[in-house]
Amino acid sequence: MSIYDLECETIQGEVVSLSKYKGDVLLIVNTATGCGFAPQLRGLEQLHQKYEQAGLRVLAFPCSQFANQELDDNSKIAETCEVQFGVSYPLFAKIDVKGDQMHPLFRKLTEEAPGVLGSKAIKWNFTKFLVDRNGKVVERFASATEPVRLEQSIEKLL
To answer: Can you give the residue ranges of the Thioredoxin domain (predicted)?
Structure first.
């Protein structure tokens, strides 16, 4: 199964196929607006602005599985991301990124790009996955990795 075979719900409630991003470089991130790493939303926006024309797509997936740091309502999440952090890249509906209800996208991402010592589990908000233009997950970045530090990896794929 390819990443492009999966569907996700946007924050507005529309179901979209990830095949719409075929040929793009993807930076997929589990986010939480109440997390201490939430300022990274601005850094992700800067990457989006800098590399969108070259084919980078930042895709944010809100999650509340780590210390319940995400709002309950998707419309409030969208508003917070836009007003407080200037987010203009695609936001998706709140999902689970671990456990029994883990979204198939994050199941695939964690299988293809394990973390430290081969661990597949996502340990916190703002784990980042870089996917090449062919849908291959090529790199995983820890929560504490600032978006600006991803530029070299992104440029290699663009």
So the answer is: 1-158
Which residues are part of the catalytic machinery? 35
Query: Residue 74 to residues 10, 58, 62, 94: CA-CA distances in angstroms?
Result: 9, 18, 9, 7
Looking at residue 103, which CATH number applies to its domain?
A: 3.40.30.10
Q: Per-residue pLDDT tens for 76-93?
A: 999 999 999 999 999 999
The domain of 78 spans 3-157
8-state DSSP, 125: T
Q: In terms of pTM, does the model score above 0.90?
A: yes
| Contact yes or no for 66/124 (Cβ under 8 A) | yes
User: Which amino acid appears at position 35 of this protein?
Assistant: C
Instruction: Give pLDDT tens digits for 23-44.
Output: 999 999 999 999 999 999 999 9
Number of domain units in the chain: 1
